[in-house]
Amino acid sequence: MVERIAVTLPGRSYGIDIGPGLLAEAGARLQPHLARDRVFIVTETHVAARHLTALMAGLGRAGIAAEVLTLDPGEASKSWAVLGQTVDWLLEQRAERADIVLAFGGGVIGDLAGFAAAILRRGVGFVQVPTTLLAQVDSAVGGKTGINARHGKNLIGAFHQPVHVLADIDMLATLPRRDFLSGYAEVVKYGLLGDAAFFEWLEAKGPALADGDVALRTRAVAKCCAMKAAIVARDEREAGERALLNLGHTFGHALEAATGYSERLLHGEGVAIGCALAFELSQRLGLCAQEAPSRVRAHLADMGMPRDLTEIRGALPDAKGLLGLMGQDKKVVDGRIAFILARGIGDAFVARDVDPAAVRQLLEAALAAAEPA
Ligand code: GLY
3-7 and 14-19: which strand pairing? Predict the structure, then answer.
């Protein structure tokens, strides 16, 4: 069964198709958006090896030809150099203003190809075909595109909405469990930020979902996309509410930076630990009952996901160092770090007046627990 979620924005509304078997139907589903029977696919080597033949066949079934640029996988591709390479390639291929760039991969490819589409000939259309859970529930939806800077992640970019998103749930079957669970952290985030009933559903269904149940996966991805679509429709440019989607990310980004964006800590693992810390901070500030952080941690534990700084291998900076890394966050306004805090499960809000001393004490306690005995 294929679910369709609409992202409604003035003059740039689009649909997100979610379900199994969508690569085979890619041509038929994308044809309404094409001015000619040709697309420009940007992908990476791992995804290309596993799934490119199926995508090309799906496009070919509708008579659509494709040119393909295959990049190196990994965060390092979100750079000026690879952006330049991508834009040059699109120009060499004579991609026209009315053409479509097809981003086929996870968050790195979606962000990079989307940004290339945003600046090519002052903006061409693009389609997201996300291949990871993280991209299907978050990065492929909502129009944030960009690359990393020397000073931090995603600091260079543009809002550029795709014209369509195809989230083929079958893509998730080939993900290593660690990558799947990293994406699952973003799924949990939606329950925690705005829907207690969804979090309860995840507590019950999470293990079966992780074990591969396609119907449950489809429902979970559709639910997250529907929540994100509603938030983006109200606050596309993150003047307010959209910042809730960064629950767990202020801590998570600092931990990713501290671990060098390496295999030591995947993005979603940072988000999982970050969500646990955000609820712990909320409890310390008297905003929510102790039951809330305990429940967050219990679900992460049930799923075999990290929730403590203790679980990060190797040395970490001290609390002051971690706070310094948070200061590079895009949500910093006038030097003040924004935190997403919660009054309970499903009831998050943006706080701009958190006392840095409280954050420092929380981090000191968490790091002390992480010290070898
Ligand atoms: N990933 C957060 C957002 O799209 O706003």
Answer: antiparallel
**Tens of pLDDT, residues 323-359:** 988 876 666 666 678 899 999 999 999 998 999 999 9
Domains and CATH numbers, the chain: 3-173 (3.40.50.1970), 177-370 (1.20.1090.10)
Please tell me the residue having the least CA distance from ligand 1 atom 3.
Answer: 245
What angle do the packed helices 356-370 and 319-326 form, to 10 degrees?
130
Q: Above 50 in pLDDT, residue 166? A: yes
49 strand-pairing partners: none
Is the CA virtual torsion 128, 191, 351, 249 positive or negative? negative
**Three-state SS annotation for 160-220:** CCCCEEEEEHHHHHHCCHHHHHHHHHHHHHHHHHHCHHHHHHHHHHHHHHHCCCHHHHHHH
CA gap 275, 291 in Å, rounded: 14
Which of 133, 137, 246, 256 for mutating ligand 1's site (highest number of atoms within 8 Å of CB)? 246
